[in-house]
Amino acid sequence: SLRLLQRRDARFVNTAFTATLLGAAVSDQLEDGRVLSGVGGQYNFVSQAHELPGARSILMTRAWRERGGEAASNVLFSYAHNTIPRHLRDMVITEYGVADLRGKTDEEVVMAMLNVADSRFQVELMEQAQEAGKLRRDYSIPERFRHNNPEFLRRVAETGGEGSFATFPLGTDFDEREQRLMKALTWLKEKVSQKDFLSLGRRALLGDHDAERYQAELARMGLADTDGLRERLYQRLLLTALDATEA
User: What is the CATH number of the domain that holds 100?
Assistant: First the structure.
C-alpha cells in the first residue's frame, strides 16, 4: 500500500528512563506502580519498526542518574514493569554507544548492553546475568568498554577538536546569553537534586559575585533589579550558577 511504501526504512526514535540487559525498556511507570509519564504512541512506533520493511526502533536512555549525591545505573538486569518488552528489542543508545539488539540471542544482547552501561555498574550487572544463566561464566567485558564514565566522556570532548561536540549541532534559536543561562540553570537543578542546600546557600550568600559581568543574563531572567529578599536570593543563586558554569 501507499502508506507502507511511504514508511520504508523508517526510523522511530524514542526515550526511556530504564533499560534492561535483555533489551526491555521502561518509560512510563516505576516498579511500585507510580506513573511518571503516559506511554503515548511509543509502543506503536516500536512495534511498527518490526513490521515495516527496513525500519528500526531506536530507544535512547542515559546510562546512569544521580539522586541525593549518589550515582545509580539506568541499565538494570531486570525490572518489574516494562513499557517495551524484550521481544521488541532493537537498538538502544546511551551516552557510551549503540547496542544493536535485533535478531540476537539473549547472551549476545546482554553483552551488547553491558558495553553501553556505565562502568561503575558493569561488574555487578555482569554477575547478575551470569547467576541467571544468561551469560557464560568466563565472559570478560572487552577493554575498550571498561572506561564508560563521565570523566572519559569529558576527556573525549576536550580532545575532539573545536566543533566536534557542539551543544546544538543542527543550530538553535537560543542566543549566546540564553545558552549560558541554560547551562547555569541545569547546574543549579543538579545541585538542588543533590540536596546539598547548605553548601549551595553558602556559595550563593557568601561568594564574591560580579553582577555587572552578567547583566545581560540577569536582565533576561528579570533579576537585574531585585525587589525584596526572595528576588535577591534568586539573583545570588543564579550568579553562583553562572560563575560555576563559565567556560
Answer: 3.40.1080.20
